[in-house]
Design brief:
There is one protein chain. With about 70 residues, this protein is of the alpha+beta class. Helix content is about 20%, strand content about 40%. It has one helix and four strands; from the N terminus they run H-E-E-E-E.
Length: about 70
């Protein structure tokens, strides 16, 4: 589960990367569920937190359907 501090850092990172302030991350309601990434009201994908041997990384997963292109 992402902490509030991690969510704030990730939001700043994604906002700078995508050049938008309309991006936000919704905290998961369950400990094992990923956080959800939105641009305004549009769902973009999920972020998983990985902890392995004392190192932390974040995986962003975004599904793009052919009809979205």
């Amino acid at each position: 589960m992402l902490t509030k501090s991690e969510i704030q850092k990730l939001e700043k990172y994604f906002q700078a990367l995508m050049n938008t302030q309309n991006l936000y991350i919704k905290e998961s309601s369950s400990k094992d569920a990923p956080a959800e990434v939105y641009k305004a009201s549009e769902f973009l994908g999920v972020i998983y937190k990985n902890e392995d041997e004392g190192e932390v990384s974040y995986d962003f997963h975004m599904t793009i359907l052919p009809e979205d292109l």
